[in-house]
Amino acid sequence: MPKTLAVGPDYLIRGVPEIDANPLIAHVPLPPETDNDAFMALALRPDFNPLDRDLPNSIRRLRIKRLRRFYVPTLRVHRQALIDVSSNILDGYIPRNPMTAEGRALLYGGAADLAFKPTISLISGHSGMGKSALIDRILGHMGKQLHQHVRFDGKPFTEKQILFLRRNCPEHCTVGTLCSTFGNYTDNVLGLKLYSGIFSKLQGGSRTLYLSEITKIIKTHHVGVLVIDEFQNLSLMGVGAKKIIAFLVNLRDELGLPIVVVGTYKALRLLEGDMSTARRLVEGGYYDLERPTSAEDSSWTDLCQIAWEYQWVKNPIEFDAEICETLYDVSQGITGLMISAFAFAQLAAIDDETERVDAALIRKVYLERMKPLHPAIRILQSGNPILMDKFDDLYRNLWPKQERPEGYRNPEPCALSSGEPVTQTQIEPEEAETTASPKRTRSGRNSVATSPEKVKPVLSDEQVKKMVLADSVADLISILDKR
């Protein structure tokens, strides 16, 4: 059998010496030139053909699931994040060029002697706003994760390059557990067993030992960027969180490695009262995926109008202001919830044979098929900063996946302390004003302001949780305002 020849990356000539002469970035796409280029690079639309509306019901139900592969960067911050993060990756590779004396010295044990250190960037927002999807699209723009080089500029260069390493921050994270996840993950990327065994032997070792092993991975495989998702888990660690942040700063400083951290607003608590930590975690850029404050927000209207094109029902109607307002009411501007409600409504329209999605059906689907999320939605409707602080945990606990499988059965309605189930009509007058929310002027970002003064709580956290699950929002607001 003939032997297959290894083919390296496709190196390009851009007319820029520091890029053209560097095998680690000569093949990597440049950052987008314009805001429109960034939009096109990030956008992900599902395959759609209007003729699909004539397909059998079973096939159309499958087509509707394609909405999970829908991503439209309508916020300016989406496009800015792509431009900045991709620029940071390229900039981090420039002094690490293995074809230069400086780059080889760094590769074989030297420290990065850089006039300007690579940066740490922070992407934040509520659960369901597409933070992880955004970093997916950014990394996708950068190209393949693993590259096998063969020759460069007529010389042998048989190096493996890992463009990015990305892991979720474990709950109750320590430097050791975080490093171990990167060891296992690197083995999976390489298709080898090199590092997982090493980290298992280091359990209980010092931070210096873990840093040494992570350094080997980054240098040996020319890692371009480290991405840490679910960064809010560090808020559970107290003093331990500062050790992990210090560890990340060490990686950046010693290796010249850009880092991106992604998390909910709870991650911002790590910045409170510590100007040095705050500066380090956002010096590469802070990208706040704010939820829109009303259905009139132009980015929300654009998002809903584009999504509305993807209807597999036989009798689609035109997009209008009522549809836009209804989609906002049932999602409160959380992108993932809007897409779920839209998909559920199409499934319902097929099931009831009306083959038509309108505002009334969207509301009906929300009441019947998205019942677990009602407490979380009411928190957003309330606009109360203390309750808002609990939204992300509630969202993740009650709706851990963006889309539930077909046939998902709703739980029985939550009960009040009296034992009577809560229904839409059993809302106290104070709560009715909240749920109607004719004026939505507060965004979830307000929830990450400085924490309220610590006083003796009126209720325990467990009691608060039970009240939230029972939709007793009005009572919670009055009680928590006193905490």
TrEMBL record:
Secretion signal, residue range per the UniProt entry: none
The organism's place on the tree of life at top rank: Bacteria
UniProt KW keywords: ATP-binding, Nucleotide-binding
Protein name: ATP-binding protein
Molecular-function annotations in GO: ATP binding; ATP hydrolysis activity
SUPFAM superfamilies in the cross-refs: P-loop containing nucleoside triphosphate hydrolases (SSF52540)
InterPro entries the UniProt entry points to: AAA_22 (IPR049945), P-loop_NTPase (IPR027417)
Region (Disordered): 403-461
Pfam families: AAA_22
Biased composition regions of type Polar residues, renumbered to the chain: 434-450
Domain ORC1/DEAH AAA+ ATPase: 119-271
ATP-binding is among the record's keywords: yes
